[in-house]
Design brief:
The chain has 330 residues and is of the alpha+beta class. Helix content is 39%, strand content 20%.
Length: 330
């Protein structure tokens, strides 16, 4: 199938268009009615790290939080794509201690943290510095709780992964078999249509059933990402928003006050373009108020100017007018 994403954003330099960014925007209203900017053909895309709150949803029925006396902060870091800052690492160690696990149990690779400051400060890295380590710890915690083997917890045939797979199908309201791959951290990762992913986030964040996950997100934006991370910045701009970024140009934002969901898929995965598109769309929908956005967040998230290395403005990022017209129909 040939995908035909829509033009979302233009980047100009000295009045000439230099770059164009293509993708899709999916919107769900409070009644789970879906509208799309661009014809997705319901093509399946891997969830990447946007899967994390859906994967974590299994702890609600299992009462894992109560079993191990986990705090909202600990649940947040277990749903995170964290930057590996000390605040993240200390919480991860706390979860390990509470669950009787150790760092050697983790099968995510030891890689440098996303935090540039920590990369410079540290001489060596451990699996805890992997931005997905919280997800792995929570998976292992469920295995410890139920008595499942912790050595093979990443095997797609493991009962843990089967449970997660079933939960994601349930949340995304699909009966189809889901394509799966290995994520960067080597854990199984599913694919659904963007519409189904949007529905999955609605079912986690816009219902009462998964309040532990929702509360963890909206109460702890810094723990979900960290310094400079788009989901953290978005949640800091409006504390009723829950946001999760994923590789491959994905970003899902939930307005937990109005029970609406936006999913963004940017095809070249440009992180700056993704943030500019998302924030401009949310401003148009009044999810964000430009007067309440911290100036430091504007530097990355909503700096529509194209500048030279000396700071001179020589161009701008412009949201496609067709996107604006589509937003008026929502």
């Amino acid at each position: 199938m040939q995908l035909k994403p829509e033009l979302l954003l233009l980047e100009t330099r000295s009045n000439l268009i230099e770059l164009q960014y293509y993708g899709y925007i999916i919107y769900s209203d409070k009644n789970k009615n879906i509208k799309t900017f661009g014809n997705t053909g319901r093509y399946p895309f891997f969830h990447r790290s946007c899967a994390k709150p859906l994967q974590a949803a299994i702890i609600q029925e299992l009462k894992t939080k109560e079993k191990f006396n986990l705090t909202d902060k600990e649940i947040a870091v277990c749903c995170a794509s964290h930057t590996g800052e000390p605040v993240h690492i200390e919480l991860l160690k706390s979860v390990l201690q509470k669950t009787g696990l150790c760092e050697d149990d983790l099968q995510c690779p030891a890689i440098e943290p996303l935090s540039k400051e920590e990369q410079k400060r540290l001489k060596s890295f451990s699996p805890l510095h992997n931005n997905c380590s919280g997800k792995h710890i929570l998976m292992l915690a469920v295995c410890k709780q139920i008595g499942w083997d912790t050595k093979t917890y990443l095997n797609p045939a493991h009962p843990l992964q089967k449970l997660i797979y079933s939960k994601i199908k349930q949340l995304c309201e699909t009966t189809k078999e889901l394509p799966t791959t290995k994520d960067g951290c080597t854990a199984p990762n599913p694919a659904t249509s963007l519409e189904e992913l949007t529905t999955g986030f609605y079912n986690v964040f816009c219902t009462e059933k998964y309040n532990d996950i929702k509360t963890a997100f909206i109460s702890n934006p810094y723990l979900i990402g960290g310094k400079g991370r788009p989901d953290t910045q978005i949640m800091q701009m409006n504390h009723t928003l829950a946001a999760k970024a994923g590789a491959g140009g994905l970003l899902v934002v939930v307005n937990t006050k109005t029970n609406e969901v936006l999913t963004f898929k940017i095809f070249d995965a440009d992180m700056k373009a993704r943030s500019i598109i998302a924030i401009n769309v949310m401003l148009q929908l009044n999810w964000l108020n430009i007067n309440s956005i911290y100036s430091k967040l504007l530097d990355f998230g909503l700096n529509n100017n194209v500048t030279t290395e000396t700071g001179e403005t020589i161009g701008e990022y412009i949201l496609n007018k067709d996107v604006l017209n589509w937003l008026e129909t929502l």
